[in-house]
Amino acid sequence: MKDYVATILQNEKIAENVYAITFETEEPVPVRAGQFGDIAVGGTHLLRRPIAICKAEENRITFCYQVKGEGTQKLQAMRVGEKTNVLMPLGNGFYVEDGEKKVALVGGGVGVFPLISVLRAYKATKEISAYIGYRNKAAVCGVEEFAKATNFVAVTDDGSYGEKKNAVQAFEAALQAGYRPDVVLACGPTPMLRALKTVTDREGLNCFVSLEERMGCGIGACLVCVCDKTNGKKARVCKDGPVFNANEVQL
Length: 251
Ligand SMILES: Cc1cc2nc3c(=O)[nH]c(=O)nc-3n(C[C@H](O)[C@H](O)[C@H](O)COP(=O)(O)OP(=O)(O)OC[C@H]3O[C@@H](n4cnc5c(N)ncnc54)[C@H](O)[C@@H]3O)c2cc1C
Ligand code: FES
Known about the structure:
CATH topology of the largest domain: Rossmann fold
Bound molecules: flavin-adenine dinucleotide, FE2/S2 (inorganic) cluster
CATH class of the largest domain: Alpha Beta
CATH superfamily of the largest domain: Nucleotide-binding domain of ferredoxin-NADP reductase (FNR) module
Structural class: alpha/beta
Number of helices: 5
Order of helices and strands: EEEEEHEEHEHEEHEHEEEE
Low-confidence stretches: none
Strand order of the largest sheet: 10-9-8-7-11-12-15
Distance between the termini: 28 Å
Strand content: 35-45%
Radius of gyration: 17 Å
Number of strands: 15
Mean pLDDT: 96
């Protein structure tokens, strides 16, 4: 992990209220799928914002972000050629074991972006099926990446793109049709992860989830991001996660 000085190469809209920002760093960044960066968004009063690393190509790192509040508004206002600091790579990321050949990705909302990094990392060696849920057609993004999966199902809450379903329902429909992955990797809103865990528990499937919590330091020091584990202990989402076995954390 290092605090990189990063120059903005591109900061473009890719869907309604969603932008892709690409930085160039002075040297290549070694990234594992599912890790994130803590991006300085300008202004001394604002904490850095944690965003999943979507693509890492040598010293070009791309993040995709939804504009929510002051931090992401400032990020969106940054222009090509500007420099900022990005602390990365942070967190543990997703591991896929050698024996796990069939990988299911289940994602919704901003949770789709770390799953793109998983797909990029494993598409050559694994059979990847992606079940991705968007709010509506205007929110659809990343399809050119997910189209490289062995199987890709995109759904929307209102049926304006793909079937009217959420990502978990799309995944469940595949299971009912006979699909059985070796491992399920997921990222999305907590209610989605909770619903997914009900399904993976019922089916006896191994499931890993990437959690989102508000963060302070991003490196395990401030304890702003702690979550409850099922064994009664606490975990730091930034350092012990963001990826956890779904049975290990309280969703
Ligand atoms: C490990 C990790 C990876 C993430 N990856 C992505 C990503 O790839 N793309 C993306 O768009 N966002 C991602 N997020 C969420 C992103 O960090 C927040 O949306 C962002 O920090 C909001 O900052 P803001 O100043 O714009 O909004 P704020 O003004 O800080 O908040 C606006 C609204 O967003 C909510 N919010 C703020 N931070 C979080 C958070 N961490 N989780 C859930 N809700 C939050 C607040 O409660 C509030 O309702 C990630 C978060 C984590 C922890
Ligand atoms: S954000 Fe400080 S410990 Fe996780």
